[in-house]
Amino acid sequence: MTSPASPSNSMPPPSRGPIARWKLVTAGLALVLLGYAIWQWPTWNALAETGAAYGARMGCSCAFVQGREAGLCEDDFEPGMELVSLSIDEEEKTATASVPLLASRTATYAGATGCLLDTD
């Protein structure tokens, strides 16, 4: 004989409220964004290295080959290089360009040769 179902077994499972659903959606979205960032990291790093190297070379040439004021050299940057910052050291005759948290490159004025990127 089968026993009748007890009341505790016949109750439906508790439903997730709107707050629990919201947390689940937020966690899923965070995981997707994290995966995208990990997937794109090599590309972002390569672009940052290229931008920093270009900025250092252009800043060095602007300041030491052309003899222009250091403050005007960032005006020579191409569109899309807004994240690249430039600092020029007049004593050492170097220009350092950096992209925050990703890359930094330095170019040194070498006289008649012009400006050369420093090797890391």
Question: Radius of gyration in whole Å, from Cα?
Answer: 28 Å
**Envelope shape:** rod-shaped
- Helical segment count: 1
* Quaternary assembly: single chain
Order of helices and strands: HEEEE
Strand content: 15-25%
Main structural class: alpha+beta
The domain tally reads 1
What is the average of the pLDDT values? Answer: 86
Largest sheet: 4 strands, antiparallel
According to DSSP, the number of beta strands is: 4
Head-to-tail CA distance between termini: 82 Å
State the helical fraction.
40-55%
**Low-pLDDT segments:** none
Could you give the order of strands across the largest sheet? Answer: 1-2-3-4
Describe the structure.
- This protein is of the alpha+beta class.
- It is 40% helix and 18% strand.
- It has a four-stranded antiparallel β-sheet with strand order 1-2-3-4.
- The mean pLDDT is 86.
- Keywords: Membrane, Transmembrane, Transmembrane helix.
- The chain crosses the membrane at residues 20-39.
Write out key terms for the chains shown.
120 residues, alpha+beta, four-stranded antiparallel sheet, 4 strands, rod-shaped
SSE layout:
Elements: H1 18-65, E1 85-89, E2 94-99, E3 103-109, E4 115-117
Antiparallel strand pairs: 1-2, 2-3, 3-4
Short description:
By secondary structure, the chain is of the alpha+beta class.
